[in-house]
Amino acid sequence: MKVYFDTSVLVAAVVEGHPHHDPAWLVWEHATDRGRQAFISAHGIAEVYAVLTRTPFVPRVHPGEAWRILEETVLPSVKVIALTAHEYRNTVRTCAQEGWTGGLVYDALHLRCARKAACGRIYTFNLRDFHLLAPDLKDKICAP
C-alpha cells in the first residue's frame, strides 16, 4: 500500500520528545520497513525543516541537525511527490473558490500530492482540516 505522510506526523516521528512521537514513529517504521511505498510532498521537505528549526523543542533542533534528520532519516525512506505549476495553480484556485484560508492551502497541497501518488493511506494529526478538504478521502485519512 502507498502511504502519504503529512508534516505533522513526520515531525512527531523524528522528535523523540514530541507528545505524539511513539505512535508517529510506529507508523513510520511500519510504512518504511515493510516494502510499502512512503510518500511526502516536495514542499513537505521545506515544511519539516521549518517546523523543526522554529518550534521550541527541548533541546532545540539546530538547522544542521534538522537537515541531517531530513537527509538521513526521512529522504532515504520516501518518494518525493512534486506538483507542477499547473497543479499548484489549480489547487490554490480551488482554495479560493471554496473560501479556504490560511494554512488550509498547505493541507490542500498535501492532499493533492497524496492523490497524485494514489496513496491508500494518508497520515496526519490534522484530521479535522484534512477531512474538511477531502471528504471523499475520509476513509484513507487517519492519525497514527
* CA-CA gap between termini: 16 Å
Number of domains: 1
What's the mean pLDDT score? Answer: 95
CATH A-level architecture: 3-Layer(aba) Sandwich
Total strands: 5
Order of helices and strands: EHHEHHEHHEHE
Shape, please?
globular
Structural class: alpha/beta
The percent range for strand residues is 5-15%
Largest sheet: 5 strands, parallel
What percentage of residues falls in helices of 4 or more residues? 55-70%
Walk me through the structure.
The chain is of the alpha/beta class and 144 residues long. It has one domain (2-142): 5'-nuclease (Rossmann fold, 3-Layer(aba) Sandwich). The chain contains seven helices and five strands. The protein has helices spanning 7-14, 21-33, 42-54, 63-74, 85-98, 104-116, 127-133, and strands at residues 2-5, 37-41, 79-81, 121-123, 141-142. The protein has a five-stranded parallel beta sheet. Strand 4 (121-123), helix 7 and strand 5 form a beta-alpha-beta unit. Helix 1 crosses helix 3 and helix 5 (85-98) packs across helix 6. The radius of gyration is 15 Å and the shape is globular. The mean pLDDT is 95.
Keyphrases for this structure?
144 residues; alpha/beta
Structure summary:
The chain is of the alpha/beta class and 144 residues long. The chain has a single domain, classed as 5'-nuclease (Rossmann fold, 3-Layer(aba) Sandwich). 56% of the residues lie in helices and 12% in strands.
